[in-house]
């Protein structure tokens, strides 16, 4: 009964944890690291075909974005998640695959002249399409007998439509343990979705800490504050550019803008135009407009009963093609443009930033977490210029950070959530999904409350049966790395990743017969001696 940590370990993104029990290997999430690449996204520290099950807490790419790569590399097991998460995954993974293909194509065009090695996408659209054949779904509160000794329940995490904490009852060799994976815990009083469910107890908790060092600012009147920003900007003749995650955050914005228009809160241009410049957001909004029974909060249920279209209002436009997207920047009329990606690292938002960042009458409105190493974080930290599509762009637009609009629980709500675990009280809380300055800090806060806790490092292995650390992990070196004035090559990064896989293979070999181990060691020594010659 072991738990290994393969992602989001003292960093925010790339969630991936592996539970080993009764000869089965169960991944909880399989996410893509976003922003600063501390670990290569291109390799797993385990063999994909050794994984039997994948449990997905929610559809955000930092929790699900490497599932197509897992399938590509030989996974043939079962993927289990909630019904709404499965619907969102179908569109989000295809969109992610499209981005992977586009970025690889762009790099290959750029590298062709210099003779650079060809770049392969992490996975293709075809790989993403293969995921659906392994997908099974459940509803909140449904108990699922996953395999021998493992019962699973998905419980509302209040973070995103369909998001879940995963509660598991484990039995191996007569030893019984319970563990809860928090996934991403939601903020309270969000529109559309319900508040996170609280638990009474568990032997172990794997808990996120994204906002473990701070609280959201005050109590916000979202509609009034958003209306003020829109009104002030349009009075100057500028555009409001909103980098937004296509799933969840965009729908919340539409919900608030509908309220703003109904209440007439924008005076400069009351019938202002709003453009959703994201095909993925359009498809996601259609899912939000579908059958949400069992997923909506009471206010949303009442609106639906009254016949209110929560995400529709006059002068709302959806752009489909890249040509339509480009035309938005040719039109001088002040407008709101909501576009992905939320951290500004890919997608159409970068084109809108190129055309609006240098204009002092415009506003760039951030409405979500900006990971380390992302363009969004650089802008919020005061960058005076940024490079977009090979061109240096001055930062002269107004920058607004709408911190009150967060889908993550803040520090106080995280402490409140874990503080209710009493029967049983956790033997250990593993604090994940926090920057390396935040996760240990939050873990210490739990220790101060009398709750045993620590922030695991990458590749740590923990014995759940005996509440003991089996193997310490390590903190990958932070990038940007520079050697002789240039970044480390992708080939070297791949070598490091393969080394991690080798360490994992050695760990799994413990207990095998001496003859096999000796042969393995001899083969490795021969390879190393040949390399060093």
List the helices and strands and how they pair.
Blueprint: E1 2-5, E2 17-21, E3 24-28, E4 53-55, H1 61-64, H2 67-72, E5 78-82, H3 83-112, H4 125-130, E6 135-138, E7 143-147, E8 150-156, E9 164-172, E10 175-181, E11 204-208, H5 222-235, E12 240-243, H6 249-263, E13 273-277, H7 279-288, H8 298-305, E14 316-318, H9 322-328, E15 335-339, H10 349-356, E16 363-366, H11 375-380, E17 385-388, E18 391-394, E19 398-401, H12 411-419, E20 428-432, H13 439-448, E21 453-454, E22 461-463, E23 468-471, H14 490-508, H15 514-532
Parallel strand pairs: 3-4, 4-5, 5-6, 10-11, 11-20, 12-15, 12-16, 13-14, 13-15, 16-19, 20-21
Antiparallel strand pairs: 1-2, 1-22, 2-3, 7-8, 8-9, 9-10, 17-18, 22-23
Summarize the structure.
By secondary structure, the protein is α/β, with parallel strands linked by helices.
Q: Could you describe the 3D structure shown?
A:
By secondary structure, the protein is of the alpha/beta class. The chain is 32% helix and 20% strand. It has helices at 61-64, 67-72, 83-112, 125-130, 222-235, 249-263, 279-288, 298-305, 322-328, 349-356, 375-380, 411-419, 439-448, 490-508, 514-532, and strands spanning 2-5, 17-21, 24-28, 53-55, 78-82, 135-138, 143-147, 150-156, 164-172, 175-181, 204-208, 240-243, 273-277, 316-318, 335-339, 363-366, 385-388, 391-394, 398-401, 428-432, 453-454, 461-463, 468-471. Strand 2 and strand 3 form a beta hairpin.
